[in-house]
Amino acid sequence: MRVEPAVPTEALAAIRAPLEAAGAERADAPLLQPLNLLLDLAGEAMRARLFVVQAEGGTESCLRPDFTVAIARQHLAGGDPEGRYWYQGAAFRASARDDRPEEFVQLGLELFQPADASFQAADAEIAGLAWQSAAAGGRDDLTLWLGDVALFAAFIDTLDLPEALAARLRRVAGRPRLLWAELARVDEPARAKGDPGGDGGALAGLLAGLSEAQAGALLEEVWALAGVEPVGGRGPAEIAARLVRKAEAARAPALTDGQSRAIRAFMGIDAAPQAAFDEVRALAGKAATGLGVALDAWTARLWDLSQVVPAEAMRFTPALGHAFDYYDGATFEVRSAALGPDRPVAVGGRYDTLLARLGGTGERRAVGCMVRPWRAWREGEGVGS
Amino acid sequence: MSGLIIAIPSKGRLKEQVEGWLADAGLKLEVTGGARGYLASLKGVPGAQVRLLSAADIAEALNAGEVHLGVTGEDLLREQGEDLDSRVLLLRALGFGRADLVTAVPKSWLDVESMADLEEVAHDFLARTGRRMRVATKYLAQTRSFFARHGIADYRIAESGGATEGAPAAGSAELVVDITTTGATLQANGLKVLADGVMLKSQAQLAASLRATWDAAALASAERLLRIVEARAAALSSATLTWPARSDAAEAALVDQLVAAGGSRRPHGVLVDSTQVAEASLALAAAGLGPVTVARPDFVFDVNSAAMLALRAQLF
To answer: According to the model, what pLDDT value does residue A196 have?
Structure first.
């Protein structure tokens, strides 16, 4: 395993100082994490990056790839609605590239709040802490990139699209290949109402007018007639409902050229934050309260951030976020020009839904950040190589 | 590692097919150390040691560089990691051991015909149940990269040691990625293959390990083996046409034409691909040349061995 060199104690203390001074409790995470849980949360694509360990006869574990999930679980187990924790320790991710360390130090802070807390203020505070911590490493080429995973859905809502199409776009938002395929399918003619359109279309026509129970019963009859033995975890009602939805989606028109252009332009926004928000407003379709609320929240976050981050060091690009992250709201990254976008100095964002998936009861909110001190330190990663 | 080490399957239908293929090229496998031995020698390639291993172990041994050459299924080789081509060179597809690696879902899923449908259903499944859809397979690496190419993220692999096709009926997975030849086993288990769900059309491959230590002796033995199997394969796909020579301009023009179409000159005729036999013979007859005798060669040794050139290019 390739190990990252150590940052000198004083430099590390300086990078840690903003997180330590934020009134948080020190937390730690077990070195071994349950493999199943992490794969359930992050998906199979994560498996290739994990170091899997297993004692003879035991269940599979992995070396912790980060602290967030472990700290969120500990917090939920404690039962408090609120919590604020900071951590420092080694994390492990396998890499096929020879020049990337696989064991490296992470510093971070996680903030948990009840549903009614002011989450915009929390977003700005955590992004500001990540910036201060990263900047304490002494690099002078840092930029704070801001983004918002939820903004895409709000933007789509302003375009007045058929629901099936809007749902599909929202679903593929985090998957570039599928999104571009949908954007390329411009002005494709919709199928006529009576056109069964192949695969199950005629059956969908029969199912469409029925109640859920009736549709399920009809589908079971179809199975019996076709000699199909149903196996596996999807019931007849669910399959019937999706047959109907699929036929509806096939009849729904594709994006118009203008709509496709607007979405492409939205995805391509990359500007100083206030200018970026103006671009989003200009691209949006009919007056949309959802989008307006989201952008107003960003104006508030930006004002808070401007207290700690120089205005010229901030950029906004809506699509900032990764397909396999847990983030579901505001996201941010501190990047060094020397290290490039592939090696961010700090990353973070909002992940409210992760808590629900970990079994948290009631509405809760969570936001956190992680800093890589070796990347933050001005004499660290990428220097002299 | 001194001398060439070749791994071939130790059991089952694949073993019989490999032995048949070697015997057809005049290479007889002689098991040493008793009838149940797992070492053998190859009559016709002196100095080569043959190890009889399971097909899966052969893929691993090639990947690790423990053997020089091996015969095993491409499905098993591709499971050794995405960048297999940097460690193992596929020299020859052998035309047997054919099987497809496919994504199969329950037939009762009338709404799922393609990988795009599966992507949508997997997403809905996660949203509805809070769990990821489970895919039973022993082909972890290929499943991961194929699903990633189709944008499917909301699934989990349930590793399966055997009887994978029964997993949906047993309730341990929702769908499977498995190998199939006729599809009958999938059918019998209530499963269907997705329209664009064929991940690999696999067959037995003669492959070389690029990680093995290749000394002069190993290279020489490998070249001998490769030339023999290539010569036999070339012979099986070609035929020699001969006819009483007329030695005029019309005959020369016709021979030139056949050579241009891929044939090669012989003292009293021309060697053509076996699919060209009828066409070439008719052309000759039409030009008044004949009678044309068609003979099948036993071996056709070329000046160069394509497989050996490829191997040398990768190694040096």
So the answer is: 43
Chain A residues whose CB is inside 8 A of the B124 CB are 242
CA atoms within 13 A on the CB side of B137: 30
Do A15 and A138 touch, CB atoms closer than 8 A?
A: no
A158 token code pair: 């302003």
Cα R_g (chain A), whole angstroms: 24
Q: Which of B110, B131, B171 lies at the smallest CB-CB distance from A239?
A: B110
Number of domains composing chain B:
3
- Chain A residues in contact with B144 by the CB 8 A cut-off are 44-45, 47-48
Query: Can you give the pTM of this predicted structure?
Result: 0.79
Are the Cβ atoms of B153 and A172 closer than 8 angstroms? no
CATH number at residue B38: 3.40.190.10
* Residues B104 and B161 grouped into a single domain: yes
Q: Do A239 and B108 touch (CB under 8 A)?
A: yes
Q: What would the pLDDT profile of A230-239 be if each residue is shown by its tens digit?
A: 887 788 888 9
Is B174 an 8 Å CB contact of chain A?
A: yes
Tens digits of residue pLDDT in B35-84: 566 888 898 898 899 999 999 999 999 999 999 999 999 999 999 987 89
Q: How many domains does chain A have?
A: 2
Mutate to test the interface with B, among A180, A220, A234 (most CBs of B within 10 A): A234
Q: Check whether residue B118 and residue B161 sit in a common domain.
A: yes
ipTM, interface predicted TM-score of the complex:
0.74
B87 close to B210: Cβ distance less than 8 angstroms: yes
Query: In terms of residue numbers, what domain contains A77?
Result: 9-149+321-376
B83 and B211 part of one domain: yes
Mean pLDDT of chain A: 87
Contact present, A76 and A343 (Cβ < 8 Å): no
Q: Are residues A140 and A240 in the same domain?
A: no
Q: Is the peptide bond before B291 cis (omega within 30 degrees of 0)?
A: yes
